Amino acid sequence: MKKNFHPSYRPDIDGLRAVAILSVVIFHVSPDWLSGGFIGVDIFFVISGFLISNIIFKSLASGRFSFKEFYSHRIRRIFPALVLVLICCALFGWFRLMPAEYKQLGRHLVSSAAFFQNFRLRNESGYFDTDSDLKPLLHLWSLSVEEQFYLLFPAIIWGVWKLRVNLLLTVGVLAGVSFCLNLYAVNTDMVSAFFLPQMRFWELLCGAVLAYYSGRHREVPMGQSAIDSGNADKLPIRSVAKKCMPAFSEMASVIGGLLIIASVVLIRKDMPFPGWVALAPIVGSVLIIYAGPEAWVNRFWLSAKPMIGVGIISYPLYLWHWPLISFAKIELGETLAPLVKWGVVAASFSLAWLTYRFIESPLRFGKRCEGVTSILLIASCAVLILGLLITGYRGLGFRYPGLIPDLQAGQFKYPDEWRGGICGLDREQNYDAFAKECFGSVVAANQIRTPKKSLLLWGDSYATHLYPGLREEFSGRYNIAQLTTYACPPILGFVHKQRKHCQHINDSILSHLKDRDYDIVMLAANWQGVGIEGLAQTLDAVKRVARHRIVLVGPPPKWIKGLPRSLFERYLKEPSGQLPNRLAQSLSDKTATLDSTLESLARSRGIDYVSALKGLCNAEGCLALDQGAMVSFDQGHLTLNGSRRLVSAVHDEIEPVE
């Protein structure tokens, strides 16, 4: 088998890996410390593109490129630690995840082992999807992007080389197209821009361009490189470099370092990303690698022994740290104590070193490479099959025969009936669709003469989940209309970073109230974290235009880990006992304070207030199960049973007995 060229070791690149992984770990553990730490992934992309392209370009130039050897080396580099982490995640899930959670983990095992996790996550980005912090394999999207690059790029470059097409032009065009797609998508579909390979390949291709120039590759007859043809000294970049390379290298390393520092400090996750913003860490990484190991920053800082040590274990550290953080949040709640956070970091470093020392290094550098490659492929296929079994058998729910059916199914997705026959927009929050589907249906309904009174429900998804209960309790006496958009509370001037039309929609609803005469205008939302001042101004504005009653609905109970998880943990403690209808544990103590604040705000303005908290809770705790079905399917959204039970409990507050 041909042996591909492999570049000489550069300690400063391991140091740059250390910068990347430390940035990512700090960001994941405590985002407030390093708001742009997630750009460490982009640094990894540049490094990977540079090293892989170096291997391909120089192997082709020397006439000894081998696809078999290339992919065998990639498998021995990537699979040992990856397979180990995936198996450990599956084992943890067996003992600590309820069926719905384990089923999702099974899907992620499949997509991670087959390297399409980025596509999986792109399709799971809906409003009611599981919180990203509770997905143990979320971070493997970036590994999938790299592997997709490794599958496509060598074949493209090999074909271009054989056809004697200019390599630099090819790589430059590919990078330019990818970057343009990224710029377009970041303003139209930021989730796709973040996850999909065509929007991310330009970052790896920047490393490829750097590899081309670092090897002085220029196209000459017969597909040889300029170096091999004896024309290296005639290259313009070579002659200039001889005179000013030392000074330029020093300047490049300093500027590159400053760009990376500025990126991790100034970039925030609410910025459109990648987009133009990603150029800073990408250019910074390119400059540092280009500067070479002799530049002062590279030699003194990046090549320091502690940085090299972290860089060497950066790959297993990346694999381990996120599952540990995610499992800690699943077990302890999403807000981790500082001691727990840094305990997780210490465990991540320990596992990363052990993995490198006893798993990755022996399998990667040991003898009998072909046998090891085959074993690793079989192990990866076994993990993929395991994931398929977990998914196909619905999270292996037979592990917990005592769980009630609704909990066993894990009602994380809302049924069609939950929002059927109403107007509630999701995802794109397209205002034109809202105006056509929502206002059109509401106006048409109000034009029909009927002896019934009218009720308008205005708010976000926490208003939407009231609809089934309102319909069951009041549809005989009221025409119930709804104007809701998910993640858009009924607060004038409210701006959402992803749903761009909230402000426009709320303004339109207020104008609609001026023209329509509703007997009841009901406002409901997830009031957690929403400014009270903005709500007060909105209530004042509604009071000026509404002709009859205004009802403000307070927050429902908030389950810190989500109600399904809270019931599941109760079951694990008492598997032989019956699950209680009410729970006093796992509830946020902030909800009662917020409920009291909102009630005072409403009463001071002569507005009726309905306490959802009091409707579902008493001295024994808050309602968790109603007739064997969960009342909430996550931290606060009500199920159909929950909606009906709440509205029934507060019926007299919505429609007082005259």
Write the SSE topology.
Blueprint: H1 11-29, H2 40-61, H3 67-96, H4 99-113, H5 117-123, H6 141-162, H7 167-188, H8 190-195, H9 197-214, H10 236-266, H11 279-291, H12 296-302, H13 305-312, H14 314-332, H15 338-365, H16 369-392, H17 405-409, H18 416-419, E1 424-425, H19 431-447, E2 453-459, H20 461-464, H21 467-474, E3 478-485, H22 502-515, E4 520-524, H23 532-545, E5 549-553, H24 563-573, E6 582-583, H25 590-603, E7 608-610, H26 612-616, E8 617-618, E9 621-623, E10 625-626, E11 629-630, H27 640-649, H28 651-654
Parallel strand pairs: 1-3, 2-3, 2-4, 4-5, 5-7
Antiparallel strand pairs: 6-9, 8-9, 10-11
Helix pairs in contact: 1-2, 1-12, 1-13, 1-14, 2-6, 2-9, 2-11, 3-4, 3-14, 3-15, 3-16, 4-5, 4-16, 5-6, 6-9, 7-9, 9-11, 10-11, 14-15, 21-27
What would you report as the Rg, rounded to the nearest angstrom? 29 Å
Oligomer: single chain
- Taking pLDDT < 50 over at least 5 consecutive residues as the criterion, the unreliable ranges are 217-233, 410-416, 425-429
Number of strands: 11
**What's the end-to-end separation, in Å?**
91 Å
Helical fraction: 55-70%
Approximately how much beta-strand content do the residues carry?
A: 5-15%
The biggest sheet amounts to: 6 strands, parallel
Which structural class do you get from the secondary structure elements?
alpha/beta
- Write down the overall geometry: elongated
Number of domains: 2
Mean pLDDT: 86
Give me the number of helical elements.
28
* Strand order within the widest beta sheet: 1-3-2-4-5-7
